[in-house]
Amino acid sequence: MADNKTADILYTIVDEAPELASASFLPIIRKFVSTAGITVGTPDISLAGRIIATFPENLTAEQRQNDDLAMLGELVKTPSANVIKLPNISASVPQLTAAIAELQANGYDLPNYPEDPQTDAEKAVRARYDAIKGSAVNPVLREGNSDRRAARAVKNYAQNNPHSMGAWASDSKTKVSSMSGSDFYANEVSATITDAQAGDAKIEFVAKDGAVTTLKDSWPLAAGTVADATFMSAKVLSSFLAEAIEDTKNDGTMFSFHMKATMMKVSDPIIFGHAVVAWLGPVWDAHGDAIAAAGGSPNSGLGDVLAAIDTLDNADAIKAEIAALDRPAMYMVDSDKGITNLHVPSDVIIDASMPAVIRAGGKGWDETGAKGDTNCIIPDRCYSTIYDESINFFKANGALDVTTAGSVANVGLMAQKAEEYGSHPTTFEAPADGTIRIVLANGETLHSHTVESGDIWRACTVKQAPIENWIELALDRQRLTGSEAIFWLDANRAHDAELIKYVQPALEAAGKADLFQIMAPREATAQSLKTITSGADSIAITGNVLRDYLTDLFPILELGTSAKMLSIVKLMQGGGLFETGAGGSAPKHVQQLVEQNHLRWDSMGEFCALGESLNFLADTQGNAKAGVLGVAAEAATQGILDDNRSPSRKVGEPDNRDSHYWFARYWAEALAAQSDDAGLAAEFAPVAKALADGEAAITSELAAAQGPAAEIGGYYRPSAELKAKIMRPSTTLNAIIG
Ligand SMILES: NC(=O)C1=CN([C@@H]2O[C@H](COP(=O)(O)OP(=O)(O)OC[C@H]3O[C@@H](n4cnc5c(N)ncnc54)[C@H](OP(=O)(O)O)[C@@H]3O)[C@@H](O)[C@H]2O)C=CC1
Ligand SMILES: O=C(O)CCC(=O)C(=O)O
Ligand SMILES: [Mg+2]
Is Lipid metabolism included in the keywords of this UniProt record (predicted)? Predict the structure, then answer.
């Protein structure tokens, strides 16, 4: 096994469906690239792996493992980084506690997650777990800006093999509901730090009596940094949510709530909690204290609250009160299992959940499994307008025609924890009525807000070098494609106005101002949808949140999934980070594998990333064989698309494992056929022949495995042996791959 510190390519160990896929695909990659002397390391950034690495003192020598995330966090700041990063779990509290429980049951002597820490020791444990919670991986690795797009071949495939799309009715009642004021959008202030203001700032809470509490100390603000502050009023949020519930009832639609509780791991679980409380209304007023005392936390979702109610003596009475509430229909995550939209904050993640509604023609599913229109509640207005405008557009124009639509690519400002996605350490729930302010190193107050108890206040920054690099990347992508290029920036929003002060002069200095437009997200959405409807392409040049949202929204509409996206992070120090797809770790797919031994995960993202990584290795290390392997990997990816070898969704049909066989075969055939490296051609000719000769045996061995339940020995940390056994069921293929 390659050492992670010296390996040429690092292929991350993650969670859930992509990790199952790796059990089948990694042996193939290793066999092929070893012919060029390329080693592949496997740093473990899985949720379970990160928990284990955090508590070495609790574990035996055999159980302990290295903190691979910290190692990768350093590596990505060096020019030699070449990392293939698969999607990992960004854990909500329910996921974190489930992972801890699984590890404990397997003999790991880990502390419980302290829901309500009291002692110093509990607070210390909580702080260590909080560092693992939510999106704790991606922001550490993303030391560069984001370039996400559909490869030409992938886009062509989608046009020629359109996925299903729900029809849009012009009288659809589906809509987006947002607050009309007192939200993050309304309260945002922003400034660019000057030389005189630079240095370590602090964030303070000033109580009504003048007492000052430091919320954050030693917060470095370099000159050129755009620094924002804003807050959402808890009171206004609560009354908005109560009204939204009534409004949904009056409309006769379903209540659905869309948040990013993983990336926004401090603010959004609180907002989610307000929604759970609003839904429970009088029941929470009457029993909230008892439920909280029993350990139920609305911020962890209705599921957590219901579990706490079950431990109370009057559980049946409380549940009867909940059932008797006059509520609209509820949008369901799984109507068969009774999992509602409000059960778990990580079950409805806005970047994937809103496009799913839009792709379905504005439809969701209620408690009875019936399909219907939905009120999509997204309290804050900073980004909700993109969904509102998309819905308006499709109501007016009908669903997108996948066979002719162009494509929206993204250039995203992401490096160095840019914008809101870096705000976890500087987000606070106001402890009382008072003022929250940012005090600069020179003593000046940069921003200050009058807040009430419970208001959600946050500050965030984006540094100058990442902004300049992002504009360069936008210029590059526009030059290479000639596409329409739009900076999605709202001149009326404080933060965006500061960014425009960077963007406008840079475009003018490059002599390219006429090739770019600057539009607020709503207008940019309408314009981009118009452009792709006409068959042309557009580049969305956006901040970090829109990067995340748009690289699911457009791919899910255009390609049926964001799993097929090319997702490159050009690290600012010269290294390469190749993310696989733009989506997540697909928990539903694991369930299907466990029940039916069918894995519908599509590894197209891994295929694309592998080709990029090998080509990058060829460039940076001057390894010509790596280049030959990279070009051949691209041919294999093309083969998968041309011959329709991607996994099917249904048991009994070819799945993820079949697609890996075909990828190996096309890859070997391309290597055998090329003439740039005779040695590689000679080496792969017999492999290609064996794979072709073995087709009938291999595909029937793979098919024979499907159907019965599959035992993988754990959810968050499956057994390596069982995983390999399930994911590599073809003895014929294994004999060739070794
Ligand atoms: N880059 C990263 O590290 C990311 C991590 N995440 C994490 O992933 C988890 C799940 O997030 P969620 O919002 O449910 O989003 P997912 O992207 O995991 O899943 C949404 C749906 O997208 C489809 N899908 C996604 N990837 C693939 C693929 N490779 N092949 C086929 N279909 C695919 C599936 O649809 P269908 O059911 O129709 O098959 C799936 O159910 C969370 O823990 C989240 O934090 C989320 C986004 C990015
Ligand atoms: O890091 C995460 O939690 C999610 C990341 C994500 O959704 C994305 O990058 O598109
Ligand atoms: Mg995303």
Answer: no
* Residue-wise pLDDT tens digits, 416-450: 999 999 999 999 999 999 999 999 999 999 999 99
Rounded to the nearest angstrom, the distance between the alpha carbon of 585 and the centre of ligand 1 is: 5
622 and 532 within one domain: no
Question: Which residue lies with its CA nearest to atom 10 of ligand 2?
Answer: 548
Query: Which CATH number goes with the domain that contains 533?
Result: 3.40.50
**What region, left, alpha or beta, does residue 338 occupy, with left being phi > 0 and alpha being psi -120 to 50 degrees?**
left
Task: Name residue 328's beta-bridge partners.
Answer: none
Residue with CA closest to ligand 2 atom 3: 135
Q: Ligand 3 centre and the CA of 156: distance in Å?
A: 23
Tell me, yes or no, whether 642 and 711 share the same domain.
yes
118's CB contacts (< 8 A; 6+ apart) are none
Q: What is the DSSP letter of 515?
A: G
Phi/psi of residue 272, each to 5°? -60, -45
Check pocket membership of 561 for ligand 1, CB cut-off 6 A.
yes
Do 16 and 100 sit in the same domain of this protein?
A: yes
DSSP class of 300 = G
Q: What is the pLDDT of residues 88-129, one digit of tens each?
A: 999 999 999 999 999 999 999 999 999 889 999 999 999 999
Would you say the CB of residue 406 lies under 6 angstroms from ligand 1?
A: no
* Ligand 1 mean position, distance from CA 349 (Å): 9
The preferred substitution site among 262, 383, 421 for testing ligand 2, maximizing ligand atoms within 8 Å of CB, is: 262
Residues 47, 117 within the same domain = yes
Of the ligands numbered here, which is closest to the C-alpha atom of 88? 1
Could you list the residue range(s) of the whole structural domain that residue 546 is in? 403-418+464-558
Q: What is the DSSP letter of 91?
A: B
Among residues 498, 527, 558, the one where a domain terminates is 558
Strands 456-462 and 484-488: unpaired
Within-domain flag for 304: yes
The 3-class SS string of 444-507 reads: CEEEEEEECCCCEEEEEEECHHHHHHHHHHHHHHHHHHCCEEEEECCCCCHHHHHHHHHHHHHH
In the block, tokens 């940012």 appear at 438
Centre of ligand 2 from the C-alpha of residue 441, in Å: 33
**pLDDT for the residue numbered 2:** 75
Indicate if 705 and 577 belong to the same structural domain.
yes
pTM across the whole model: 0.97
> For residue range 264-280, what is the model confidence (pLDDT) as tens digits?
999 999 999 999 999 99
Atom of ligand 1 nearest to the CA of 352: 13
- Based on the domain organization, do 582 and 553 belong to the same domain? no
Strand order in the sheet with 456-462: 189-192, 226-232, 456-462, 427-429
Which 3-state string (H, E, C) describes 374-422? EEEECCCHHHHHHHHHHHHHHHHHCCCCCCCCCCEEEEECCCCCCHHHH
Residue 410 lies in a domain: yes
The 10s digit of each residue's pLDDT in 655-689 is 999 999 999 999 999 999 999 999 999 999 999 99
Domain count, the chain: 3
This complex has an ipTM of 0.98
What b/e string do you get for 624-649 counting C-beta neighbours within 10 Å, with b at 16 or more?
ebbbbbbbbbbbbbbbbbeeebbbbe
In a domain, 67, yes or no: yes
Which of the listed residues 19, 89, 90, 268 should we mutate to test ligand 1's pocket, taking the one with most ligand atoms within 8 A of CB?
A: 90
What would the pLDDT profile of 169-198 be if each residue is shown by its tens digit? 999 999 999 999 999 999 999 999 999 999
Residues 594 and 716 in one domain: yes
pLDDT at 1 > cutoff 90: no
Shared domain check, 587 and 552 = no
- Is residue 183 within 8 A of residue 377, CB to CB? The reply is no
- Tens digit of pLDDT for each residue in 300-336? 999 999 999 999 999 999 999 999 999 999 999 999 9
Of 510, 526, 558, the residue that ends a domain is: 558
Ligand 1 atom 45 nearest Cα:
90
Residue 276 CA to ligand 2 center (angstroms) comes to: 24
